[in-house]
Amino acid sequence: MRTFIAIDLDDSLKKALETLAGELRPLAKSVRWVGAAGMHLTLKFLGEIAEADAARVSSALEEVAPPHGVFALVLQGTGAFPPGRRDPRVLWVGVAPGPPLLALQEDIEREMEKLGFEREKRPFHPHLTLGRVKFPSRLDLLIQEMRKYKDQWFGEMSVQKFTFFQSTLRPSGAEYTVLKEFRLG
Q1: Among 86, 63, 77, residue whose Cα is nearest residue 183
Q2: Known catalytic residue: 40?
Q3: CB-based burial label for 18 (10 Å; 0-12, 13-18, 19+)
């Protein structure tokens, strides 16, 4: 099973991001936009794992959650990966990297490393994927429009839990199933 650990967004934030995507959508036919069901903040992608490993991951995450208190998740700004290029691959909305979020992500990373999952080599850059570029053609208008939102505040929510998800790839896009939720504090 293909799995990852993430913070699911409140419906109000999903609506704000859907509104933004709706404004940007007409500017680029070559982008696969993320639907509301796919809007989450990934803390750790695990990839393909066996069911026995899923039980070990759940057990480890049970230990990670309690020391972390509830915290605010703030969505602000837009950007693209790779940054500063005219041919981006991913379009995103930023997440303020506050100390509680960074501490939670680091603890999850450390515990998963103990279970044999490779540590992410790139620094954690909290973001919500709005869309993935299928082929980079005629994106100038889209990039120009996204720059207008580079400092925009899109809302915030109180993070009270994180989720262990299974992702099933379908022709219509990824389908997510909650394996287990972990309450903070």
Answers
A1: 63
A2: yes
A3: middle
pTM exceeds 0.85: yes
Task: Please state, for a pLDDT cut of 70, what percent of the chain lies above it.
Answer: 100
Q: Tell me if 7 sits within 8 A of 73, measured CB to CB.
A: yes
The predicted-structure confidence for 21-79, as pLDDT tens digits, reads as follows 999 999 988 899 998 888 999 999 999 999 999 999 999 999 999 999 999 999 999 99
Q: Which amino acid is at 104?
A: L
Q: Residues 127, 139, 142, 165: which is the catalytic one?
A: 127
> Per the residue annotation, which of 14, 20, 40, 79 is the catalytic one?
40
Q: Is 127 one of the catalytic residues?
A: yes
Give the C-alpha distances (Å, rounded to integers) separating 153 from 45, 75, 138: 26, 6, 27
Q: Tens digit of pLDDT for each residue in 90-146?
A: 999 999 999 999 999 999 999 999 999 999 999 999 999 999 998 877 788 898 999
Sheet of 90-95: strand order equals 31-33, 127-133, 90-95, 71-81, 153-159
- How far apart are the C-alpha atoms of 15 and 96, rounded to whole Å? 19
